[in-house]
Amino acid sequence: MVRGGRRPGYSAACSRINRNLTAARPQCPVVSRQARPRLDAPQGAHGMTGNGMDAMHTEEREHRLVMRMLTKWRALANGNDFPRRSQVDPLTFGEDWAHCFLIDVDPVPERSRFSFLGANLADPSWPIFERQCVSDCVDGTLLRVATSYIGRVVARRAPISVGGAALHFDVPILYRSILLPLSERGDAVDGILGAANYREILETEEIHLPMMATTETAISR
């Protein structure tokens, strides 16, 4: 967490992020299965040195996480509409598994429950993992924004990736997330495989409005 005095504009950035999170639902461009999805890294770090270059490299890692998850999901599906939840093996995902979560889907999305939550996404307000509902995710956290579009994934029956600016325990961040549908029977979506990671927006970093925008990409099977 960032400590010390806040530079001018830092608190204003937090306010803009809050407004952005309550704005209208973003548009969802559809990307064909054959074409490689273009999930651009969040803007604002290019042309920097020092901490700025570190931020850019972190964003590239975030981008690669989403692409790795999509590649493995497609491999598991093996030409079917969805992989089965029973096919999801933590060993397949290696170090990425700490950024992943599994959700048992309920007809009411907010009642869907976590069946697994990676170590890097653990919520400190949950001293014990007890298959909490998605609605138990604390507002203003990465886990909240990363699970906020479950209903859209179920309705579209396709992966969706969302990224942009958010707050994580009152710290401004840039994040990426992806939700990938699963089905044990092969027809209805009954599970979600998700992943998310982030970086803090540095106090020394220029904060521009384009960085505040949330982007959503729906990926066709």
Task: Write a structural description.
The chain is an alpha+beta fold and 221 residues long. The protein has one domain. Helices cover 27% and strands 22% of the residues. The chain has helices spanning 10-21, 51-77, 90-93, 142-146, 150-156, 209-212; strands spanning 30-31, 100-104, 113-117, 160-168, 171-182, 191-200, 215-219. Residues 1-5 and 22-59 have low confidence and may be disordered.
Percent strand equals 15-25%
Average of pLDDT: 76
Measured on Cα atoms, how large is the radius of gyration?
17 Å
Number of helices: 6
Tell me the distance between the termini. Answer: 38 Å
Question: Order of strands across the widest beta sheet?
Answer: 1-7-4-5-6-2-3
Record keyword descriptors for this entry:
single chain, 22% strand, 6 helices, seven-stranded mixed β-sheet, disordered N terminus
What is the secondary structure topology, with strand pairs?
Layout: H1 10-21, E1 30-31, H2 51-77, H3 90-93, E2 100-104, E3 113-117, H4 142-146, H5 150-156, E4 160-168, E5 171-182, E6 191-200, H6 209-212, E7 215-219
Parallel strand pairs: 1-7
Antiparallel strand pairs: 2-3, 2-6, 4-5, 4-7, 5-6
